[in-house]
Amino acid sequence: xxxLAVSVLLLAPGAALAQTAPQPSAQGDVxxxxxxxxxxxxxxxxxxxxxxxxxxxxxxxxxxxxRPETVRxxxxxxxxxxxxxxxxxxxxxxxxxxxxxxxxxxxxxxPATGAETRxxxxxxxxxxxxxxxxxNTIEVLxxxxxxxxxxxxxxxxxxxxxxxxxISLDASSGGARPAxxxxxxxxxxxxxxYVALFDExxxxxxxxxxxxxxxxxxxxxxxxxxxxxxGAPGQGRxxxxxxxxxxxxxxxxxRRARLGDFYLYPVGHRITIAPNQxxxxxxxxxxxxxxxxxxxxRNDWYGSSSDxxxxxxxxxxxxxxxxxxxxxxxxxxxxxxIRDAKGQPQFIGENRIDHTPMGSTLAIRTGEAFDVKVKPxxxxxxxxxxxxWERTEKFRIxxxxxxxxxxxxxxxxxxxxxxxxxxxxxxxxxxxxxDLVQAGLxxxxxxxxxxxxxxxxxxxxxxxxxxxxxxxxxxxxTVLTVAFDTRY
Length: 488
Hints:
Number of helices: 3
Radius of gyration: 34 Å
Structural class: mainly beta
Number of strands: 29
Oligomer: single chain
C-alpha cells in the first residue's frame, strides 16, 4: 500500500457540504471588452446598499485572473479605502491544507457490511501526503482500498467558494445606489476564422467569418454585452505582427466603430461566456465576391534547383467595399474549400492573415500545385568590365541615393553578370500564368543590382524583389531568362 497525496477523489468534504446547490451569479449588468492579446476589460454594474461611513462590500464572481491593481469602482458619494482580492478558493486540497493543526473526523465504510466507523484525527502536515495523529499514534492516510471521506467541523474563514473582491468604502451618505466595478483580466481571448468557398468556374468566393471566444477562467460572465477589439493594446512589450505574404494593404476606412486605432466588432446580442468554454459567433457573411486562382513562385538570390519545384497555388480577392468583402478583417485563419465533381465542398488549404484594412488585395496561399513546376538555374557567371557596367546603368533597379563623393582608385574594378533561367512547365490542359518573383536583389552592400536583359518584361515590386508574369501554354513550357549585373 502506498501513501496517498491529497486528491479530489478521496478527500471530499462531508455530505452536508457536497449536496449544496450551485449559487446564482452575483454579477450585475456585465460588459466585456476582449482584446487579441489575452486581455479583457470587465465592467460590472451592481446595486449596493451603503451605510454612512465605512462599509465593507464583497464582490463575488469576479474573474479568478483579475489584475487587482487595475480595479476601479465608480459609485456616487463613496470612495475606496482598501481592497483585497481573495482567490484562495474552496477545494478538497485547500480544506485539508487549512486543517493543519485542527481536528477532523475520518469516516470509513466497510465495503462488505456497509457499516461506518468514525474516528477523530488531528492533521499534522500535508507535505506530499496527509500525516495524522490518531490517539497516541502518528499515521499517514493511506490508500487501502476502503471508501474514506473527511468531515470538517467548519469552514476556514479565509476560504472562498468563489473568487471575491472585498472593498472597504467610505460613504458620505447611506442608501442604495448603482456601482460599476471595472478591471482588467487575463484568460479571455478571441480570434477570427474564415471559411471561403471558391467557385473556380465563376471566379467567385463565398466567405463566412466566425469569431471564436475563449474563456479560460473558472468564472462565467453571464448575459454579457460583448465587444471584440481587433488589436492588442500596448503592455510594455515590443513586436509587431506583419501582413500576410502577398497582401497589398488597402486605404479604405471600414464603417465600424473605432477605439483609438482599433476596430470594434460588437456581438449582436448578449451572450453568456461559460467557464473554460469556447464559443463561436458569426460576424461576416458575403457571397459572390470576385476571386481568382493564381500560381506563384519565389526564388532566393542565386537560388537554383536540380529538380523542378511546385509553384504555390494562391487565391486572390479583395476586401474593398466595391467588388470585395467590404470590411476590415481581423486577424485569423482563412480555410478554403472548392466543390468536387459531385458538388461537395472539399478542403484545399488554409493560411493565416493579420489585421487587414478594407480595400486590401489578399493572396491566400492554399498549397502547392501538382501540375505547375518551376526549375530555377544559374546558367553562367561572368566578369564584365567597367565600360559594360556603365552601359547597363539605364537598367538599374535600385540606387543608394546618397550625396556624390569622389573616390580615387588605382586598381582595376571588376563587375559580375549572373544569367538566371527559370523553366516553367504546365501539365494542365489549359494555359496558366505564374507570378515568378526573384528576391534578394537588395542584399548587396552597394544596393545597385541591375537587370541588363530579360526575355519577359518584369515589374519592380520593391528594391529587393522583381516580378514576372510568365504565361505557360497548355501541356507546355516557357523559359524566362534574366541577366543581373552586380559589383561582386
